[in-house]
C-alpha cells in the first residue's frame, strides 16, 4: 500500500495505534530523572505534519512530554543557520559507533566530538549557539513556540534541576573538551543552558510542526528561510546517520527516515518534501530509544512506502 | 536544476566530467597492491544506469578496474537472499566509528563485526555465502556477469595474489572471529575466497548495471526477484550508514545517497526507484574513498536534486 | 662495587653528579605551568637519607622545587594509615598501561581508577583523606614538615593557581568518577585540595627524609608508627609497579627500586631497610619523568648494587 | 619470624601446606584444554631451591604438571642471552593494563607488544629465538632438563594438540603482528613452536631449580653464565611488573617477589641472591593465577620476611 498525496494520514495513524495497543513489551522509562521515571510506559501518541501545517494525530498526540535530546536537532539547525560550515571544525558528522556518552572516542579525537547528537557534540553546539546569541536555551524555546504556534511550550524547571543533579557526566565531558580548547563558555553556564534545553516540554503535534522546516528544505512556517536547501539536506543526513544513539544503523534499516530520539520517549522523523512525524511513548530499549516509537515509525514506512530508500 | 524523468543523464555527466577535469588534487592510489598503485590518479569514468538498463557514461566508463570492496554489496545481497535475517545474528548493521580495519570494536563486541562492509563483517558474509554455495567467489562472479551482461567481468589473479601476500591483517581478523565461533570455514579457504572476490575487474558500466537491482527494489535484470522490497531497502540503508568506511556521515552529508566504495577507486550509488551510478578514479583520500569519485557524486546530486534527503 | 654499610654515600653521589654534569640531553621542563617552565633543565640535586636521619647530598640538594606528583606517595600513606584496606575498594593497585591522564580505562572499569598514582587515583585518595581529616592538603603539609624537620616546606600559591587554570582535565576526571559515585566531596573543593598538594615546594633533602618511613617499614622520624610493616611493603610495591606513569616497567628494569616521580622533575626512591633517595632535575622525558633523575638513580643502583632485584 | 640463613625452609613449607589444606576455595582449573581441566583443584605442591641446588619440598612437589606460561621466563632469558637489548625494539617491558589476550593495546602500539609475558609478546620472543636457534622449543626443553637435572621433563603432545585446536586467538595475534612486520617466521611454524613450549611438563622441583639462575644473578647450575648480572636483574624486574597477567600489581602488593604464573596452576618466584620457589595448584582465579599458589607465596613472604620490599 503506497500512499498517494491525496490521502489523509489519519487512517494510517489509527491503524498503527491499534497495532501498538496490542503489542506486548514497551521497555522502561528513563529512571535517572524522577519526572521521566513516573511516566506510564503504555502512553502513546503520534502526529504527522504536512508541509502546509496540516497535522494528523492519534493517541496522546497533544500531551506534553520531555523533549530531551529531540531538541538537539533544533539547536543544531539554529547554530548552523548562524555559523555555517565553521561549526564542522568543532564537531564531526560521523556516527559514533559507541554508547552515547562514551569518552573514549573523544579522547582519541582530541576533544572534537564525532557528531552533534551525542552529548559531547550537543554541548559543543549549545556552547557555540550561546556565544552567538547570549541565550541558547531562550533562542531554542522561541523557535519551538514560533514553529508550533503553541506558546505553552516551555522549560520544565523540575526536570532541569534533576538533570543538573545528575550532571557529573556531562560536566566531565564539558571540562574534558574545554581542556582541548573546544568550549568557549564557562562550564557551569554551559551546563545550565544545556539542561534547560533538554527540559523543554512539548507535544507530538508541537514537535512534528517544529521539525517541518526540514521537510520544507529549510523554510520555516512563516515562509522565511532558516537553512539553505543544502543545509537542510545535510541536517537530514546527520539525523539519519547519527540521530538514534548507537542504533542509527538499525533505525535506518527498519525505518529508513532521518530521525532523532530522546530519553523522554519522543522521536521526530522527516520525509523530505512530504511530511514530518513525531511519536511518543516513554518506554525505552537498552539503547535509549522508545520501543513503541520505533515500532510505530517502522509500521508507518511499511504501510505508506514513504522511506527514503 | 531539478531533473525531470524525461531528461537524459548524458549532459549532466559531461558537465561533471568537465568540472572534475579542472579540479586539482586527486589523492593517491592505494599503494599496497602493485596493480592498484600503478593506475593513473587522473583516470576518471562515470556511468548512470536507468531502471530499464539504459546506461549513460563519460570518460573511462568502459575501462575495467579493480572492484575491491564494492563487491561487498553484492556478496551481502547474495547471502541475504539465501539466508535472510539469520545473517544479522552474525554481523551487525551499525556504523563502526573506527578506521575500517580496527580490531578494537570486534573485541569489545565478542567477535560480531559491526557491519557487513568493514573487512571483518565482509569476511563473515563471505564465510556464510561460502557455506551456502560452496563457492562464494564463483557465485558472485556469475551474478556480476549476468547483471552487467558482460562475460568479460573476471577475477584478476595477480591482484588476488597481491592481496594474499598482504593478507596478515585479514588473517588476524578471521582467526580472531573464529576464536569466538563466528567463522564456519577453514581460515585459509575463506581468505582465498575473499581475496578472489576483491580482485574482480569490472567497469563503471558493469557495476552500475549490477547495482540496479537495488534501485529496482530487489528485482534483477531478468525480472526475477533477488531480494524482497524490504530487504532491498535494508541493503540501501546499510550502504548509507556504513558504505564508505569511516566517512559514511560525510558521504551522507555531501552526497546523500546509499553508496559503497572500494580502494580500487570505484564507488557505486543508488537512487532508489530511479537509477544507479558508478564512478571510478584511482586517487584516494585518507579514509580510502576516491577523491574525484566523491566529488563527482556530490556534483551529481547537487545538479539533479536526486538525493534521498 | 657493592657497598657495605660502613661506607658513606657521599662519594657515590659526587661521582654520579659528575657523570650527570657531562651527560648531554636533559629533556624539557613541563611547560603548562609557568613556574615549572622557568626552571633551568640543567639544575640537578640528589640526596640520600639513611634510616637514622643522616642525609648526604650533592648539587642543588637543598633547593626547593615543586614536588607535584611525588606528594601522591604521602597522601596515599596518610589515607591508608587512617582507612586501611577499605581504600582498595575505591582505587586499584594495577599498572595503568596507558598515558597517565587517560579516561579510557576509567570508563572501562566503572569509575574505579587503576592505581593511586595516576591522576584519577590520586583524586580519589585526596577525596577520601579530605573526608577523614577535613583538610587533606594541610594534613599532608604538616606531615612533610614533621618528617623533614623543615618548617619552610610550604604550598606555592602561584603554582596552585596555575594548576587550577589548567585544571579542566582533572575536573573532567573528578566529575566522571563522581558520576559513578566514587567521589564524596564537591568537585571544586576537591580540586582546590588537590592542586594545593601538588604545589608543595620542598628540597631533595626534605623529600628523602619524608620518604624514610617507607625504608623504616612504616615508622616515622619520631619513632611512632604510621603504617604497619605490611602496609609499608605494600606502598613500596605500588610505587614499583605504578610510580612512574607509563614507564614503571622501564624504571623497574633500569633502576630496580620503588620510586615516584613528579612533573616538577623530582623522583623519590626507596631501598627498603636501608635508605631513601630523592633526585631532582627539571628536564622531563616524553613520559613525564626527569631525564637526569632516572639516569642518576640508574647509576646509583649500578654503583651500589642496592637494587631490590 | 624473620629467617636467618642457617634455617631450613622445610618447616615453613610444611606450615604453609597445612594452612592451605584448611583453606576453602581453590578456584577452577583452566577448562579450554581437557588435560588441564581434568586436574584436581585441591592438588598442591611447593618447592624451594637454594642457590647451591638444595631443594625443599612439600605436597605434590615432584608431580609433573603443565608449565604453560611459566616457560615464558626461560624463553625470554634464552633469547636475551643471544640477542641482548635488540630484543627490546620488538617487545616492550611495560605492564599491559589489560586482560592478557587483548588486541587493543597491540593495535594502539603498532604491533609492538607491551611485554614478553602477554601472549603477543611471548610469540615475538619465541619467533626471535626460533630465528636464532632453528628450534626454539627444543632449545627451551634442553635448558630445562639441564637446569633441573631431570631428563624426564618433556613436551606433552596431547596438550600441544589441544592448544593448537584452540589456537585461533594466538593465530590472530601472530598474523596481526606479522602485518606490522614484527614476526619473522611463518605463522604456522611459529604457532607449532609456541604450543610445544607451553605444553612442557615439569614438577615444582624441576621449575624451582630451572629458575635458580635468576637468583644467582645470571649463573646457571653448571657455573656458566647465561645472563649478565644486569640482565638477570632486568628479567626479575619484568617478572615483578608483568609476570602475573593483569594481577601484577596485586601480586607485588601481596607477595612482593618477581614471579611468573601459568594457566596450568604453576607459579615460579625469585628471592634474588637467596632462593627460588615454585608452587602448583590447578585452581585459578578469574585473572588466570593459581588461587592456592598465590596464597602460599603470600604466606611464605610473610613468614620469612623474604619480600624484596
Automatic annotation (TrEMBL), chains A, B, C, D:
What InterPro entries does the record tag this protein with? Beta-lactam/transpept-like (IPR012338), Glutaminase (IPR015868)
EC main class here is hydrolase
Q: Which Pfam families match?
A: Glutaminase
In the UniProt record, does the keyword Acetylation occur?
yes
Binding of substrate occurs at 69, 119, 163, 170, 194, 245, 263
Q: Which residues form the signal peptide?
A: none
What are the UniProt keywords, alphabetically?
Acetylation, Hydrolase
Catalytic reaction(s) noted: L-glutamine + H2O = L-glutamate + NH4(+)
EC number from the UniProt entry:
3.5.1.2
**Which GO terms label this protein's molecular function in UniProt?**
glutaminase activity
Q: Which GO biological process categories is it annotated with?
A: glutamate biosynthetic process; L-glutamine catabolic process
Give the NCBIfam families listed for this entry. Gln_ase, PRK00971.1-1, PRK00971.1-2
HAMAP family associated with the record: Glutaminase
Subunit arrangement? Homotetramer.
Instruction: Report the sequence similarity comment from the record.
Output: Belongs to the glutaminase family.
State the protein's name.
Answer: Glutaminase
In the UniProt record, what gene is named as encoding this protein?
glsA
